[in-house]
TrEMBL record:
<dbReference type="InterPro" id="IPR036390">
    <property type="entry name" value="WH_DNA-bd_sf"/>
</dbReference>
<dbReference type="InterPro" id="IPR005650">
    <property type="entry name" value="BlaI_family"/>
</dbReference>
<dbReference type="InterPro" id="IPR036388">
    <property type="entry name" value="WH-like_DNA-bd_sf"/>
</dbReference>
<dbReference type="Pfam" id="PF03965">
    <property type="entry name" value="Penicillinase_R"/>
</dbReference>
<keyword id="KW-0238">DNA-binding</keyword>
<keyword id="KW-0804">Transcription</keyword>
<comment type="similarity">
    <text>Belongs to the BlaI transcriptional regulatory family.</text>
</comment>
<keyword id="KW-0805">Transcription regulation</keyword>
<protein>
    <submittedName>
        <fullName>Transcriptional regulator</fullName>
    </submittedName>
</protein>
Amino acid sequence: MGTRTPGHGPKRPNGAREAEILELLQRADGALTPREVTERLGNELAYNSVVTILTRMHAKQLLTRTPRGRAYAYAPVTDDPGFAARRMRSVLEERADRQDVLARFADGLSATDADLLRQLLDPGQ
């Protein structure tokens, strides 16, 4: 583990490269092509690997893509808090016992977070 060959980065767990690329795209001023992503990663991944990762992330609806020249330029569909909210919704949608899940979630909140959630749910308070 950790061996490096030209154009290939060290092996990482599934999802680690996606997270790294997502973070890179979130920091960018705009959408990036696979070539630009490859360069910003310091060429540690082969161009084809970057294209594959970006394509998979687009298929998972994590990224948008728009044509730019002969390639696509990719951008995240939301920011980091938006992705966290999507994950939370996804977990909730997988469960039939939504009320129980939400009740357990609310029970685990700190008093400060519970107050913040109340404010967000009822902005007129």
